[in-house]
Amino acid sequence: MTTRNRSFVVIGLGTFGGTVAVELARFGNHVLGIDTDEAIASRFADELSEVVIADGRDEDALREAGVGSYDVAVVAIGEDLESNVLCTMNVKMLGAPTVWAKATSRTHHRILAKLDIDRVIQAEHDIGLHVAQMLHNPLVRDYVSLGNGFHIVDFQVPEKLDGTDVQSLALREEFELRCLGLMRGTAFHECTAGCGLELKTGDKLLLLGERQNLRFFADSLA
After folding, report:
1. pTM
2. Which one of 35, 168, 198, 209 is most buried, counting C-beta atoms within 10 A?
């Protein structure tokens, strides 16, 4: 199944916004980048579909750029809280159907949330949580939060579990976890009931469950 490409406008092409814009373009989407700095904007001229030099605080400039006609608008303006909020308000008023905006603090997050946008991103905060989780338990290589306390964790199998049958871990019975599968190199293996799959050091178990239960399982191997 193919994913329908969409159109995106990214306002603010700093480290965060520039990375988002370039990656979206690499996926084959039409991406308009907007920044007030001509030098910054020019660096993305060959990587994005379009680049416009404009001030996100200027509603007329954004209207002229056609911001309201894009599927998704991302407000990635950094440290200038006033510019970020005004730009977000302008994007909403111009009718962009989906709006994401970057917040740099908890207060900033609360302000943006009041504007009823689709998502507020706290990049540094989210990355900090991610890094802390992996530092806390080196066996956790990566994870995805699903909300409501549930996560999917990429759990690296330690040497002490080498040769162990997946079913003998009693993931569901003892830890209320579900094994979604196992990656061995580039091959994916399903962990269905009675599969009899033996673990090897370095395998990656994909586990679904609540954060506390995932921690209990990790701690049981310490």
Report:
1. 0.69
2. 35
